From TrEMBL:
Keyword set includes Lyase: no
UniProt domain RING-type: residue ranges: 131-173
Gene Ontology cellular component annotations, sorted alphabetically: membrane
Localisation per UniProt entry: Membrane
PANTHER family: OS02G0798600 PROTEIN (PTHR47168:SF1), RING ZINC FINGER DOMAIN SUPERFAMILY PROTEIN-RELATED (PTHR47168)
GO MF, any single term: zinc ion binding
SUPFAM superfamilies: RING/U-box (SSF57850)
Spans traversing the lipid bilayer: 73-92
Topology class, membrane: Single-pass membrane protein
Name this protein carries in UniProt: RING-type domain-containing protein
Domain of life of the native organism: Eukaryota
Record keywords, A-Z: Membrane, Metal-binding, Transmembrane, Transmembrane helix, Zinc, Zinc-finger
Entries under InterPro entries matching the protein: E3_ligase_sorting_rcpt (IPR051653), Znf_RING (IPR001841), Znf_RING-CH (IPR011016), Znf_RING/FYVE/PHD (IPR013083)
Amino acid sequence: MQQSGAVAVVIGDWDQPHWVTMYAPAGDTADISIPSVFLPRTEFRALVYLTSNNNTPLLVSLQRDETWPWMDMLLIIFVSPSIMLLFIYLSYKIRSRQRKLQEIAPMNVVARLAIKTFYHEKRLENEADSCAICLEDYAPGEELRVLPCNHDFHPICVDAWLTTQKKYCPLCKVNITFATSHNNEITPLIHTFVV
Ligand SMILES: [Zn+2]
Ligand SMILES: [Zn+2]
């Protein structure tokens, strides 16, 4: 067809219902410069119908398939593992966040913990006169947060510890959510901790 002067070739099949990728069974096609396309049954018959019903020449426009042939491969090699890794990373983050939430005390539980005012004179023998978290001495009249285990701290110091680090008393490791949710009094179990 190229030798006869054709600028392009449309090859159709009356019966074949599927698209066919054409190729040269043998030999070199490097000397073929005109484009060609295969048409299956429906498209081919439609084209034949149009040409036989029109006396004017029919313009057929061949368009190159612009999809990037490596796209699928690229998707499989790079994008899929990335999505997988992202998924693993996200589920790891969610799990560690859940673990973290289990380790800390809820704000509302901490806010319900007792508050007392510090007076040097009223201090008992075994009671601390400084905050074990920031090591600052308590000032007279200062408000202190008292945990169920009777250990006291600056509210700002211990609230931050309980709500962001651990739900345990920094000194005796009593679980303050366990102690407050079961009983506001000190339970015998916790007494053994304190002693
Ligand atoms: Zn403090
Ligand atoms: Zn304690």
